[in-house]
Structure formats: structure tokens, C-alpha cells
Design a protein that fits this description.
Layout: H1 8-32, H2 38-59, H3 68-93, H4 98-105, H5 108-119, H6 127-144, H7 152-182, H8 186-209, H9 220-248, H10 250-254, H11 260-270, H12 279-294, H13 297-301
Length: about 325
């Protein structure tokens, strides 16, 4: 007998909420940049996210991670998972539209796959993975508009975005090792990660951008942006994503990757009145096509074959080392 499909009413609202929260994060970064340095935006959102997840942690009867060796790993993990990429996204959006930031964020599953194949040299890439990487690379070239030449602040901003999503690729692979080695839940890992990132940016931010401005000097719009990024984008969205994975499975949970770039594009154009050239959204679609190919999206959408006794063949994509958990992180 086949297992009954999960009731969409149990996970679809959370799924759409995640797409909305993560998709509008790029718009809120742009709003906060009006009055805050990028490194302080990263620091404030990480602090609020850590406090939010700490509440969820204790509500579920869990405790923060323990052990000196683990916290040393969390220090390194926090650098590549949040401190550096969150800061790079802010500095990049000083140079490029928020829509482009959303498009680049959508390439995170591809950088995860590249890092996986480099780190696990014994694992040979499948034809599907190679095709997805080639399509994704072609999409990046279209986004850059290489036929027009490259240079200037836009290129610098996009290189920062490339650096940020490369950090995500490293972090996703590090995540699997940490959770297996130390038997951590995703919630415990994230609390430890954000705690270390908060301490890192508490030290780094004044060195990079000078003393922070007075909290009373900010406009309501900036307060709203920081709360949206921290409490919702870095805190609540994580809890919602865990709910989707628990109720609908990792395959459905990983598909949230595809929606934030579209939400970000709508928010950037409609709310921020950003101007795009034709190649940027087209390249973004090609990138997402590459992500879909590499993660086996089109295999998942095909009806699964049945074997004897009506049992369905397991979807091999669910065991894909580059597919599980490779989701948007901003």
C-alpha cells in the first residue's frame, strides 16, 4: 500500500509564508541600508534571530549545544553560514538592486553541489547534476550580461553575492557533518550558529564600520526592516521550514528554494521601483532551471512507478547529497 499524501492544509500555509518572508528579505535589507551600515544590519538581524530561536528551543524542551570542541566548530561554522554571507549581502545591495540579490541567492543549491563534488572526490556527478550545473552557469552569465562587458560597481556587487552563496555551499556541507558528528537537532545547531555569529559581529562591526549610531536615531521603517529580517527572516522562517519538512517531507521542503527569487523580484520592482534589464530575470529563470535539473525536480514531478504489491519506487532524489537541505538562507 502507498503512504497517504500529506494534507496540504497542514504545510502549504507555512510553505508560502517562508517564500514570502525569505523573498522580501532582500527588500528589507535595501530599506535598512538607508540608515545602517551593512555589517550592523547583519549583526542586528542575527541577534534577533538568535533570541527568537532560543525561545523556540526552550519551548520544545531542548537545550543549547554543549562542549568546548563543538563550540569551536560552531565558531568556524558561523563564519561561513551567517557572519560573512549576511554581511556580504548588505554590501552587495549597496551596489546592485535587491532583485539581483534574490536571483543570486537562488544559486545556493548549485554552489552546494559544487562544494559537495569537490569535498567528496570519490563521488562522481551524475549526468543530471552536470546538466544542472551547466544550465546554472549559463544563467549566471546571462544575469551578468557578459556580452556587454563587465566592470564597475555592479560587477563588484555581484562578485560579493557570488562569495555569499559560495559560503552557503560550504555551510550546507558543514551542516551535515556537524549534525551527524555531534548528534544535534537543526534547531540546536542554528541557535549555536547564531550565538557565535552574534559574538563575532559584536567585535567585527565597530572595527569595520565604527561605532553604531544611537538606536533612537532610526526611522520606523528601518526598525521594521531589522525586525522583519531578524525575528521573521532569521528566526520564525526557520521554525516554519522545520514544520514543512516534518509534515510534508524533505523533498517538498527543499522546493521552497524556487519561490523567493520570484517574490524578491516582485517586491523589488513594485515596492522599491527598481529597474531591471531583460537579461536579469531571464538569467534568473535559467539559473532556477539549472537548480531544478540538478535537484531532480522534474523527476519528482513525474508519476512514480509501482512495483509488486502496489508499492512505489523510492525517489532517489531524496538521497541526493546536494539536494537535501539546499535551501535559500537569507
Amino acid at each position: 500500500m502507498t503512504a497517504p499524501a500529506p494534507n496540504a492544509a497542514r504545510w502549504l500555509p507555512a510553505f508560502l509564508a517562508i517564500a514570502l518572508i525569505w523573498g522580501t528579505s532582500f527588500m528589507f535589507i535595501k530599506d535598512a541600508l538607508v540608515e545602517l551600515e551593512p555589517v550592523y544590519i547583519a549583526g542586528y538581524r542575527i541577534l534577533l534571530g538568535a533570541l527568537t530561536l532560543l525561545i523556540f528551543l526552550y519551548a520544545r524542551g531542548l537545550r543549547p549545544p554543549r562542549g568546548t570542541r563543538l563550540w569551536i566548530h560552531l565558531f568556524v561554522y558561523a563564519i561561513v553560514a551567517t557572519s560573512v554571507p549576511f554581511t556580504l549581502f548588505g554590501y552587495a545591495e549597496q551596489r546592485v538592486p535587491s532583485v539581483l540579490a534574490g536571483i543570486w541567492n537562488g544559486t545556493a543549491p548549485l554552489t552546494t553541489l559544487v562544494v559537495t563534488l569537490i569535498a567528496m572526490r570519490s563521488e562522481r556527478p551524475s549526468r543530471r547534476q552536470i546538466a544542472g550545473l551547466l544550465a546554472g552557469f549559463a544563467g549566471v552569465l546571462v544575469v551578468l550580461g557578459v556580452w556587454n562587458g563587465v566592470g564597475g560597481s555592479s560587477l563588484a556587487g555581484q562578485l560579493m553575492l557570488l562569495g555569499a552563496v559560495t559560503c552557503y555551499g560550504i555551510a550546507f556541507n558543514y551542516t551535515r557533518w556537524l549534525m551527524k558528528r555531534f548528534e544535534l537537532s537543526p534547531l540546536q545547531l542554528s541557535v549555536g550558529q547564531l550565538t557565535m555569529s552574534t559574538l563575532q559581529l559584536l567585535i567585527a562591526a565597530p572595527l569595520i564600520a565604527g561605532a553604531p549610531p544611537s538606536p533612537l536615531s532610526h526611522s520606523p521603517r528601518v526598525y521594521l526592516a531589522v525586525v522583519a529580517l531578524g525575528v521573521f527572516g532569521t528566526g520564525i522562517a526557520f521554525a516554519l521550514n522545520n514544520h514543512v519538512v516534518r509534515t510534508a517531507g524533505i523533498t517538498t521542503g527543499s522546493m521552497v528554494t524556487y519561490l523567493p527569487p520570484f517574490v524578491g523580484a516582485v517586491a523589488g520592482v513594485v515596492v522599491l521601483h527598481e529597474h531591471l534589464t531583460w537579461n536579469q530575470p531571464v538569467g534568473g529563470l535559467v539559473v532556477l532551471l539549472g537548480v531544478g535539473i540538478s535537484q531532480g525536480l522534474f523527476v519528482r514531478l513525474r508519476p512514480r512507478q509501482e512495483v509488486g504489491g502496489g508499492q512505489r519506487v523510492d525517489d532517489p532524489v531524496q538521497r541526493d547529497p546536494a539536494g537535501d537541505g539546499a535551501r535559500a538562507a537569507v
